[in-house]
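In practice, a research group might receive sequence data for several interacting partners and want a quick structural hypothesis before committing to experiments. The following worked case mirrors that situation: the sequences arrive first, and a predicted assembly follows.
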Amino acid sequence: MRRTVAYVAAFTGMATLFLVTILVTALVLNAITPRAAGVGEGSPSAAPSAAGPVGEITITAFDLGFEPTMVHVAEPGRYTVTFVNDGGTFHDVTFADGTVIGADGRQSASGEVAIGPDGMSFICSVPGHADGGMRGEVMVDGAAASGDPQPTPSARTAEEMRDIDAAVTAQFPAETAGRGNQVLEPEVQPDGTLQWELTASVVEWETEPGTVVEAYAYNEMVPGPQLRAEVGDRIRIILHNELPEPTTIHSHGLFVPPDMDGVPVISQPAVMPGESFTYEYTLRNAGSHMYHSHFMAEHQVPMGLLGAFVVTDPAAPDVVATDVDYAMILNDGPLGFTINGKGFPATEPLVLQHGQTIRIRYMNEGLQIHPMHLHGIPQLVVAKDGWTLPDPHFEDTVLVAPGERIDVIVEATEVGTWAFHCHVLTHAEGPDGMFGMVTALVVGE
Ligand SMILES: [Cu+2]
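A structural hypothesis for the assembly, expressed as tokens:
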């Protein structure tokens, strides 16, 4: 029933947006200059003056960003670009005119780019990296000093900016391949033990329409399958490692025996490629918990080795029942800024009927803080890290730090469509409009 409501609302929204999408897409196709057209070296377009370089620019890349993000030059013209890649993996600097200069990790490269009077934006064109923060801008200081109005990003007109923004938003909720965070029913063993098998492997994952990145996944989904059980349950998780590197699983927030804690050497040997490992224990504490890799976790977790582990306690008198129970996993890194493995406009809207309630279990598996701001309706904060708060209180922006789980209850008192996004604004909006950690709460009549 609830699923039907969500489906119908999403479908209706998509149908109404469909015509708009067609119109706006036509406009945008005319407006956007091709970005990564000239992959290779040099600029495909001629410089304003064919004379030699007027100066030098140095841009340093790291995982995942540029230093500086704002490059100041004194005048328009052709510049020599030194690209230093301090990151551990391939990055490039792709300018808005199509000029691409790339280098493997710990390598450098050079090239030339022609900067016009309004400056030029640049990104790393490796899928997911621009959304992960690899964006910058070359600014021509003389232009600003001349008294002219500030140039708009990439020298777009106001109409182009409006139409590009509208074209992205009109796609919401966009279809993409794969859906993470799906509840995986356990296989109940003869002795009552709840058993799940999780296979870690490398997959191709579509984070937003047309953006397919390499990801690490449990059972081929990002986030991995959602596990649900009750306090007192005996549980068994069998991990199969099909990655090209070692891994382990740590059950984050749960009381477990020390040899089930998933830290290589300290609790167990690393699980090598082709090997399996069985985690087994009895659940002692309820709450919004997580499971994730604890081997090179700074790499494997942002790549997708994470999932929700929700433990309920039917005997707990202080836990409020809601109509909808929703785990919202936040992540950042090589897959971009994601909510349950997807970036806007491919994020999933939350759909409620007027008067219904939802428990949102925020879980931050990323490396950055994400203050989650819901428009229109306050959020009642009821639990932190699985522990019920003695003082539930309202917030409109709920800060979720790395590793934290915050539970909120939202009552659908206000009919309408409400934006719902991370309020670190660079996680939610860019020169092409909204992206990343943005979704919506839709409250029907
Ligand atoms: Cu954020």
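Before designing any experiment, note the following. Helices lie at 2-31, 141-145, 158-170, 297-300. The pocket of copper (II) ion is lined by residues 337, 368, 370, 422, 424, 427, 437 (CB under 6 Å).
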